Amino acid sequence: MATVSAPQYSRRKNSIARLAIAIRPKEEAPAAVHLPDLRQVTVLPKAEWLRIQDNLNHDNKHNESLLEASKQRNALHLRSKEVVKFWSNTIAGQRQKKLEAKKIREEIEEEEKKRIDLEEAEYQKQKRKEAISKAKSEQYFQMDRVKGFHSALLLSEVLKEREAQLELKQKKQSASKDVDRDVMAQLKQKDEEAMEQERQREILREQENEAIAEDLKQQMREHKLIQEKEKMENMKEAVELQRLKELHDWEKSMHKQNKQEEKRSVMKAHLEHMSNRNVIRAIEAQKEEAEEERRRLFMTAKQKMIKMRKEKEAEMFRDVQRHKETMTERLAAQLQEKTSNDEELITKAVTLREARLEREQRENAAKKKTMLDSIAVHRETMHQEQERKLSEEKQMALEMLQAKKEADRIFLEKQQLKTQKMKDNWVSLQDFHIHQMAERRAKEQLVKKEQLYFEAKNTELVAEEEEQFQKYSEGVIRTAAEAKRNILPLRKAAKEGIGGGLGPIFGGLRPSYLVHDSTGVEMPKYVSSTTQDIKELYETNDIQQAKKRLGFTW
């Protein structure tokens, strides 16, 4: 039995009605709603219904209560953090204060570092400027013209130093005249003292020589005693040598006697050997005679054997001759018998040959007839084949003629196309050449403009360099003049124009003119004030003055 509450039933009723209306087809009419049987429905009181609902929704309420408690705790925590955030006597406050102080300190340090970096950058910039200025100065001082000017400056310093040295020398010479007398007196006194010292040294040398002479005499006496001792020793050695000589002579005589004894023994042995050799020769002669006898007997026996062998060979030859004669007789009888048999065979063979020749002639005649017939047939066939080939060749010739005409036409068209293409190519090539010439002309004009611009810039740089050099040289010359130096070399080195030549200035340059020969030396400069005056006299720029000079006064 279903047990539902009244409110639930009413909700279900409404929902069922809505569902039925929603799913009902449009073409159907609304049907009657089937209501539940009230006798089978149990009605619950409200308290019981609420209890059931609480039991069913217990988990959801517990979760909601937990979420609510968590939210409250978070809100309290945030509020406490907001309250404690500005307290300075807490650990978090102290940490926050330290962090803020550290941040402020880092910002100050960062600002200080930035300021130091800016100062360092400015310092490095200044150093770079100084280095660039120094490099430019060194590069400027490495120029040949500046080096020449510095050489002239050094020459002026050397000349000044030379003048100072000459002046010092003159002062020394004037001062030395008063000092010479004192010096001569001192030198004379020193010479006298030196002579006295020399006399003292001479006396000492004489005393030393006397002592040396006495020492030499003593050495001579000692040497004499030594010579006497050596003489006595030599006498003793002579006696000993005499004794040794006598002993040597005795040994020599004994050696001679021994040699004579050896010779006698050798002679005796030789005589014995000679007697023994004669005996040996007699024995050898007997042996040779016995050997000769044996050889003679052997030769006799050998000759007998040769004679017996020759007799036996002659007997064997005679037997062979007799056998040959017997065989010859037998062969002659056999040949006679064979000749008669051959004649019969020849007759039979001739008969057979004639029959065979007749048969062959008949066969050859038949073959010849057959061959002639086949030749006639072949000739007719070949004639027909030749006519057919001629007709085919004519047809092929016509076709080839048509093909050649077509090929000539195609070739002519190709040649026309090729000619047109060559003409177009020539026109395009001409246009390309014209365009290339225009580009080359434009490039040449551009190069010319660039060259003119380069020359102008070079002229400006030369003028600027000349101005800088003149300023520098004027300053140095002014300083040298104030220091009372010889400024003539500086004036000569500071003259206008770059280059060490002697010619006139062209475009800020002073070139050198060389002699046109094998030496190739530089030509001298003969321009002087007189030359300039004559040049101004004869090459005036004012036409009126020229007329007056020539006498045209009208």
From TrEMBL:
One Pfam family it belongs to: TPH
Keyword Mitochondrion: no
Keyword Coiled coil: yes
Coiled-coil annotated spans: 91-138, 187-245, 273-300
InterPro entries given in the database record: CFAP210, TPH_dom
Keywords: Coiled coil
Any single Gene Ontology cellular-component annotation: axonemal microtubule
Domain named Trichohyalin-plectin-homology: residues: 142-489
Protein name, per record: Trichohyalin-plectin-homology domain-containing protein
Organism, as annotated: Aldrovandia affinis
Taxonomic lineage: Eukaryota, Metazoa, Chordata, Craniata, Vertebrata
